[in-house]
Design goal:
The structure holds two protein chains of two kinds. By secondary structure, chain A is α/β, with parallel strands linked by helices. Chain A has 26 helices and 28 strands. Classes of the chains: A alpha/beta, B alpha+beta.
Amino acid sequence: MAECHPVGFQWVMEAKARGAVVIHVDPRFTRSSAVSDVHVPIRAGSDIAFLGGLVNYVLQHDKFFRDYVAAYSNGPVILSEDYRDTEDLDGVFSGFDPETRTYDTSTWQYEGIEVQSSPGQRGEESADKSGDAAGDAAGDGAGDGAGDGAGGSHSAGGEDVGETAKGHSYGSGGPALGAGEPTLDKTMEHPRCVLQVLKRHYARYTPEMVEQICGIPQDLFRRVCELITSNSGRERTTSFVYSVGWTQHTVGAQYIRTASILQTLLGNMGRPGGGILALRGHASIQGSTDIPTLFNLLPGYIPMPHANQHPDLATFVEAESAHKGYWAHMKAYLVSLLKAYYGDAATADNDFCFDYLPRLTGSHSTYETVLAQMAGRCKGYFLMGENPAVGSANARLQRLGMANLDWLVVRDFSLIESATWWKDGPEIETGELRTADIATEVFFLPAAAHTEKDGSFTNTQRLLQWHRKAVEPSGDSRSDLWFMYHLGRRIREKLAGSADPMDRPVLDLTWDYPTKGPTGEPDAEAVLAEVNGWNAEGQPLSAYTELKDDGSTTCGCWIYCGCYAGGVNQPDRRKPASEQNWVAAEWGWAWPANRRMLYNRASADPDGKPWSDRKAYLWWDPDSEKWAGHDVADFVPDKAPDYRPPEGATGPEALAGDDPFIMQADGKAWLFSPAGLADGPLPTHYEPQESPIANLLYPQQRNPARELIGPADGNNLFHPSGAEALSEVFPYVATTYRLTEHHTAGGMSRWLPYLSELQPEMFCEVAPELAAERGLEHLGWATIVTARAAIEARVMVTDRIPTLTVGGRPLYQVGLPYHWGPNGYSTGDAANELAHLSLDPNVHIQEVKALTCDIRPGRRPRGPARLQLVRQYRERAGITDETGRDL
Amino acid sequence: MSVDRADRADRADPATASGYSDHPPRMGFFTDTSICIGCKACEVACKEWNHVPSDGLSFTGMSYDNSARLSADTWRHVAFIEQRKPLASQEPGQSGDLRWLMASDVCKHCTHAACLDVCPTGSLFRTEFGTVVVQEDVCNGCGYCIPACPYGVIDQRQGDGRAWKCTLCYDRVSVGMQPACAQACPTESIQFGPLDELRARAERRVEAMHDAGIADARLYGHDPADGVGGDGAFFLLLDEPEVYGLPPDPVVTTRDLPAIWRKVGVAALTIAAAGIASFARAPR
């Protein structure tokens, strides 16, 4: 965090000054480790074993917060007799179909709940793969993003997760449950209740096993267990902070799930000082998922309609909304969005122009898009503040895709590699591509920086903060808002008068933003007002509870409704901390409804009293018959703790007064996920797609449901792993990361002398033992090789990359900052050349945080010899299109 | 107050000693290296504000330190020191055996500043805040100040010839702002303020760290009795000064000049006298 989020890290340092103990878990010793109390070195890709070990410790030593778990989690719920655990089935769960590599979730259901139908849609029709990951990959590719579907999005039920890979798109709520009431055992002793299932599932994740798998010494691991458990409970809370080190794995979503289980057991959710905090890759990544740059979501995590499944508005609403909780009002959110898009053209008679919305026909994530480019199906591409030729995993594939386009528009500050690959990219050097043969027409348009425009940032706390232009952009540089508005305006001018129905969705758009100044810059605040929305009288709305499904309200993003309440730019508020309480509700504005902490009902006990005075945050005030506290209640404001839903209730009324997790179908925190995940109801340790280690816990080596991008004409090949023959050709674990001095793929830093001089060129970090084994010299050069590419880097020999003992043998890791490419002041080979595309099946993020490689002294070969070296390695390791693709 | 004590107090307050009668309190930096996270925002903010040129691209291999040292083109410099020593932990005895020290170095703005003493042009001067500043439009590039600095801070810029160093953002401080580096520091490792307050705060901080079992913590440059009369920019360190590239016992290089000149004078007189005597004794 100190390394990549130094400004936010000031609050960790403040906490430390107030006595907080800071534990840093990382394969390398970073700037965070340097100021932490404990550094825990870990083998990249083994975190579920580590976190599962913590879960096991908590359960074995009875350290969980029993009252909290019994009341607020699904720990007491009894599972169906049909459920089989990985302990029973050698590392897979019941319901797995090895042919399709997907799970049928019907055996994961609760006893007493009707099993959801499993429609088994397959093939192209239902290949509704999606990617929050894609959006982030779009932002900065392999470096960041990921897991940024954290808000998740919504889709009906868990029935088709496996087939359609819609697991992550569960919106503001979790997946639906079937009809009926689950059978409970409040003592949590029943052998089939979730808590006991959990206990058995993690029973073998012992300190000894953690040491064997992760390389963490047992006494150090036990110390971490003690620190975390002694700092959790009624009086104290512990928080977890993660970034892409957890997400960019074939089991990334399950990493976060393991932390969720641990934090729920310890009673650290919905309480001050608790939680699981996702740090985003760069400013406003949260905003770019809320109002998404993702192919599969509409603003506010409303799913993008599917071509075959959603013929009209009624079908869509029926399929995608929920029966309980706030997601039951999804139609009001969607209709208000359509009114914001299409204004007067949207009427009840025409389904509010629902048919104007684009439809999914399959996965259109960033990696599928690249394959479509290579296949000639995708012909045009906008890159806006994105440098995939450096920042995306398997960067070569990105360039090969772009080389097959008709046109490419790059908007950035400088001539980044994604704008110049056609004349000086690696494939030009090796002779694989010739500039004269590339037909792609490339347009470069200079972009304005955030200091040169008005707008808002949404940070990971869902906090919107307005910023104002400090200086005019120079030359032809323009804001993204300017570009999109004027592009739309010109297209609409060209289409004006067209009678072609195909042009109506563009012509009917409300596209009337006021502009100002000599460049015609649109007024960003007018966009904020549109996002907030208006009522039938044209007055700004103040809360999403005011939204209607009859077309009388407009709202560009329902979760942002209220950000312009009273016609006031709420994100622009800057009341000093000294003039308000510590929650600081008048600094900026947080969605939803200016709540600063989600699920804060859990900070009080079932009766509505704070669990402890020290951790009081929200409580039921019996006098006023309302929830009171330091923050806006994340609960119906006057729903009493003893409220019980009447028979047949729907929407928020269907949840009880002691169901704090209001976006879940049952209001409970899920220790066990009966639906919603593509790769299992409980997190399980699998080895990464590429690993030098055999899975010590199960015969199943890798996540059986992981998503593999095709061999792509030999451009996306995998290494043998673990016990497989010739895995020793790639004996080392490689992991990519960022440095404080540079920003993602370098577009904002490698062209700046002041930043470039601080980290002037690409380097790799290796332990002294590995340097000795391979003859690497400090300050010398090394060549790092995978089946995808060979790159070179200067060598930094350092104790900060510790040599671990894993499975009784020394394990060496190669640290690779991924900022560099051939352009700019500060240059070097891109680490992402080495990476492959195997993805988490829930969010479709690439596994760049743990892969295997070889490293050798000296610079890489030039020209065609570079390809020859990679080919030799493939032959030595016996790699074919099929390697690493078995279950 | 006796004349003697008043004289000593004047010497301890450099602005007064320099002839300012009515001046603001002495301002300075307290750099608490124990909470530095090595982000180098201070280096960049300094260069941005003061238009200090880039120092060139050089991969040094000295941990994450590629700016290497304070120089004419680097007025804040963050040192990175990798050690086989335990972390400075709040949980004594519970950390690994690796320690990574980071420390942002800067001009010390000495109470007795040799650079100032030797400057023949008056380019270097003492401000009303007690800081030491080079005037770029007066400096003639003679370079006397460079060997005079006991810390090796001030430096001549190549191709320019003039001497450059931290001004403690004289322009910003003059209008009530804090220096760029302190403003940019996210963890308040660099603290700016009246020197008296900073010294008191630093004493409390060291005590608290000692109480927490971090015995290595010590102050550097805070003591008015040291060889430079105390620094206007002082530090909390976690190891010996040498580890950070700082001299353990800096002495103002002009300290002995009066004595030297006195001795030189005596020697010259002696030689002259001897010469005269030799003539006087010369046989006719």
